[in-house]
Amino acid sequence: NTNRNSSKQGGRLQVIANFFQNLAPTRRGSQSQNTQQSDSPVPPEQSTSHTDLLPPISSSHLIASKSHNTSYASHAYLSSPRDLSPGQKNSIVITNSPSPIRRTVEQFREDVLRAKESGNWQPVLDFYSAAFDSFIELNKTFKKDPEKEYKTAENHGIQIEFVNTVYDSLMKVPNEVSKETLKAIINCLLKDKRPHGKDDLRAYLILLQNPQFSSLSAYVIFAHLLRQIASLSDHDHHFLVHWIKQLQKDRFRGILERLHNFIACRLFPPNPEDLPSLGKCTWWIPSATKVMALFNAANNLTSPVPLVPHTDFYNSTLDHLDLMAEYYAWQNPSSHAGFSFCQYPFILSIAAKRMILQKDSEQQMIIQARRSLVAKVQRRQLPDVGMLFLNLTVRRSHLVSDSLNEIAHKQHDLKKKLKVSFAGEPGLDMGGLTKEWFLLLIRKIFHQEYGMFTYDKRAGVHWFSLAPCENYQEFNLVGVISFHILMGLAVYNSINLDVRFPSVCYRKLLSPAVVPFHNPRATVGVTTSSLDDLKKMMPDVARGLQDLLEYDGNVEEDFELSFQMLRPEEVEMLVCGNPTLVMSELKKVTIYDGYFWDVVLHLPLEMQKKLLLFATGSDRVPIGGMGEMTFKISRINDPDLLPMSHTCFNQLVLPPYKTRKILKHKILTAIQNAEGFGLE
C-alpha cells in the first residue's frame, strides 16, 4: 500500500512539473530539492458525509487534458505589477543569493521598499517561496508565537497585520514573484492534504485570504483549496468558524466576494476555454458553497451586529438558474443524486426564494384542486368550478367571526387558490376582493379595541396583549389563525399584509416547536431573545432595563427587586412587502398624459399610501420594487364622478377633471371614503 501511495503522489508531482515547465525559468536548485522531498506517502482523505459531492483531488481535475495544458498555463498567474515605473520593470533582477526568510512586519516592508528602489526582488521572492511552501512554513511565518500551540476557538494565533501586509504587497510585486507564490501554494496543498492539528487549520485560514484567488487564472488552485477545507470534519469546521468571525470586516467581505465570483464564473464562465469543463469539476461549486456556509455561520455568531448584512450572502447569479429543478432535487434527494443550492438557503436571494415559493404554491393549488375533482368523480357527483378554490363568503358587519369560522371549517382547502366574496355585494374576485379582505381583517384583528394585540407607537410594532383573557379557546383560535394561517395564506396567495411585528416574532415562527401545556395540539416556536429585541418592540422598557444593567449600586438592596430555512427578515419581507413607498418610482412604470402626477407627488406620504391602497388594494410595495408592478390609468368621460379603481388589475379610472384643484379634491374624497364595493 505504501508503494502504491508513493507512486500516486509521484504522479501528481510529475503533472505539476509538466504544468509549469513552459511558464518560467526552472526553479532554483533548493526549490527543486524541496519538490523532490515531498514524494513521501500522503495519508488518504478523511471520510466525511460529503465525499460523494467533493471527490478527492486528482491530476485529471487539476489539468483537464493534455491539449489544455498550454491554455491553463497561459492563464495561471496574475498580471504584471501595477506600482512599478517602466524603468523599474526593465531593471528587475532575480539572483540566487541566499536571504534570511524569517521577517517581522517592519523588516518585510523594508525589503519590499528596497526591492522597488533597486529592482532586486530576490529577497522578496525568497520570502514568498519559502513562507507558502508548506503548512509548517506558513505557521512559522505568520504565527504570533511559533512555539505556542493556540488550540482554542477564541484565539487563532495569527499575526493579522503581517498577513494583511504580505497580501497587500503581493498585488504590487513583479509577475515572477506572483508565479513563484502560486507554485509554492500548489506544493503546499499537495504536501498537506490532510490536516493533523490546529496549525493546519490556521494555514487554511491564511491561504483563504490570498487576493490572487480573485483572478480567473488562479481558480484551479483556489478550487483545490476550497475542496480541502470543505472536506474537513465538523470539529475542524467549528474551529474555523470561530476563527473566521475574528477577521476584519473588509477582509471578511473580500473573501466572500471572491467566493461569489468563483461560483458565478464557474456557472457562467466569460470564456469557457479558460476553465476545465464543468463535467470534470462538478465538485467546484459544492466546495465553494460549503466554505461560504462557514462564513455565514461565523457572521451569525457576531451578534448583535453581524460583520456584514445577510444580504451580502445573496448570489444574484443564481436567479438565472432553473431554481425549481434545484428545489425538486432538494425535496427528493433519493431520486436526485448530487448537490442543490436549496441546501444552503443563505445564498439564494429573496427574489429567488419568492419565485420558488410562488411556483410551489401554484403547483400545490393544482394538486389540491385535482384531488378534489377526482374525489367528486369517484363519488359519481357532478363537479363544479367552486370546488377548485378556497371560497370564503363573509359579511362586512361580522368580518372577524365569519372569517375565522370559514377558515376553521375549511382547513382541508387551505392550499387551494383563495377566492373571497362579501355577502350581499356584487363582485367577481379576480384578486382585488382578496386583497381587500386581508386588509380589513388584519385591521380589525390588530385594532387595540379587539384586545388581541397592543401597539407601541414609539417602536411602531404590534405585540401580543398581556391583559388577562376570559376565553382562552377564542384567544387561541384568533391567535393561531391570525398569526399562522393568515400569514401563510397571504404568502401562499402572494398578498402583502400590513402587519408590523418585531423581527423576534418571525424568528419565533422559524424556531423548533415544543408542546405547550395548555394546548397539546399546537406547535409554538421557542427562540432566544435579547435586550436588542426588546428595544425593537418596547423601547421604554428596554431603556429602563439597560439603565438597570449599567447601575453601579446594589440593585437588590436599592430597588428591592429580583429577577429570575427562509431568515426572519426575509419572512417579514415576504409577509409584509416593502414599507418604503417612492411614488416617483410608480410614475416610471405608468404611461399617462396630464397633471395627475403633479398633484399626486405633492400629496403627503400618508395620502400617497392611501391612493396606492385605493388603486391596488395594498399600500405596500412589491419586494422587487415598483418596477414589478403593472399600474394602469384609464379614462371615463363623466367629470361628475369620483375616481374609481379595479384593484384586481391595479387600474385607476379618472374622469377628465378641468383643473388641478378639482382633481386633488376628487382624489382625496375617493381615497378617504374607499371602503366597499362599487362606491361612486
UniProtKB/TrEMBL annotation:
<feature type="domain" description="HECT">
    <location>
        <begin position="410"/>
        <end position="680"/>
    </location>
</feature>
<keyword id="KW-0833">Ubl conjugation pathway</keyword>
<protein>
    <recommendedName>
        <fullName>HECT-type E3 ubiquitin transferase</fullName>
        <ecNumber>2.3.2.26</ecNumber>
    </recommendedName>
</protein>
<dbReference type="GO" id="GO:0061630">
    <property type="term" value="F:ubiquitin protein ligase activity"/>
</dbReference>
<feature type="active site" description="Glycyl thioester intermediate">
    <location>
        <position position="648"/>
    </location>
</feature>
<dbReference type="InterPro" id="IPR044611">
    <property type="entry name" value="E3A/B/C-like"/>
</dbReference>
<dbReference type="GO" id="GO:0000209">
    <property type="term" value="P:protein polyubiquitination"/>
</dbReference>
<dbReference type="Pfam" id="PF00632">
    <property type="entry name" value="HECT"/>
</dbReference>
<dbReference type="InterPro" id="IPR035983">
    <property type="entry name" value="Hect_E3_ubiquitin_ligase"/>
</dbReference>
<keyword id="KW-0808">Transferase</keyword>
<dbReference type="InterPro" id="IPR000569">
    <property type="entry name" value="HECT_dom"/>
</dbReference>
<feature type="region of interest" description="Disordered">
    <location>
        <begin position="26"/>
        <end position="57"/>
    </location>
</feature>
